[in-house]
Amino acid sequence: MRNFCTLFDSNYLPRALVMYHSLVATGESFTLYVVCFDDLVYDILNKLKLKHLTPIHLADFESKALLAVKGERSTAEYCWTCTPHVIRYVLDTYKLAQVTYLDADLCFYGKPSILLDEFEQANSSVLITEHRYTPAYDYSETSGIYCVQFMTFNADERSLAVLQWWQDRCLEWCYARYEDGKFGDQKYLDDWTERFEGVHVLKHLGGGVAPWNIQQYILIKRDENLYVNNLPLVFYHFHGYKYYEDGIHNFILGYQLSPAVVDFVYHPYAKALLKAYEEIQQVSSDFNKGWAIKDTSWRSRLKFYKSRLFGVANEYKIV
């Protein structure tokens, strides 16, 4: 049994449902613990009664320390602030030996155990994943070497020391800007392999594939399975994905995506999102969250037209 945790509000519910169903499809035995960041997502998840998912009400999770900084931070910044606290809450509340944090906009194509087996064989206490940027998209200086997307913590002394340090730092400062070597909850990870003992950096290329690194890999489909550089694709991170009520989906603005990536990864994800909406509306007929609002400013339009000129607009009509 694998234990996962995540957090999201109703705007991310369709993406999170895609992630959940993708985990089920891999055949992994798991429980996903979800801290629900608004009442709507909590109510819907309870109505859906998903077999492998445990919803957690925000009021049951939030501590006095978190509430003290909540008013100072945007919704995204507060979510980032909460990430290490969610991990610790799930470990402590459910008496788990191990839990893996997942971003809600991941989609799985292979069992996460492929990655977790590597971690456990390394006899480490914490697992982190690199961005592995394509050189043209290297934002490690401002966004960090590592990505808070798939992180595993054991309930042991080494792991809890890392987690407590991260919790404290995020309470002190966690904002959506680069400042004094910090950015959100993410830049704090940059020196963990030197600062702490027992931190393992994932080696398997199939974990952490994303729009900022997919250009480096050869993606193929064989026997209905996806491979990157002949290794199983375990999960893809759909960062920056936007979809609109008129049926337009912007997969990611400004990144080069090959036809194979568009056909094998993004188009199926777009259809899975629409299917997730149908599932939600079966229990909440007026649900209408998650749609992006088009920025019609001249700067935004100029950026889009430049992206189209260079073949990186990545906008498609999905029906």
Account of the protein in words:
It is built from eleven helices and 18 strands. It has helices spanning 13-26, 39-48, 58-61, 64-70, 75-93, 113-121, 140-143, 157-172, 192-195, 259-281, 298-309; strands at residues 2-8, 30-36, 53-57, 98-102, 106-108, 126-130, 146-154, 178-179, 182-183, 199-201, 207-209, 219-222, 225-228, 231-232, 235-237, 242-243, 248-250, 315-317. Strand 12 and strand 13 form a beta hairpin. By secondary structure, it is α/β, with parallel strands linked by helices. It is globular and about 50 Å long. The chain has one domain: Spore Coat Polysaccharide Biosynthesis Protein SpsA, Chain A. A seven-stranded mixed β-sheet has the order 3-2-1-4-7-6-10, with helices on both faces. Strands 5-15-11 form a three-stranded mixed β-sheet. A three-stranded antiparallel β-sheet has the order 12-13-14, with helices on one face.
- CATH class reads Alpha Beta
Structural class determined from secondary elements: alpha/beta
Cα Rg: 19 Å
Q: What's the shape? A: globular
In CATH, the architecture is Alpha-Beta Complex
Give the total of beta strands: 18
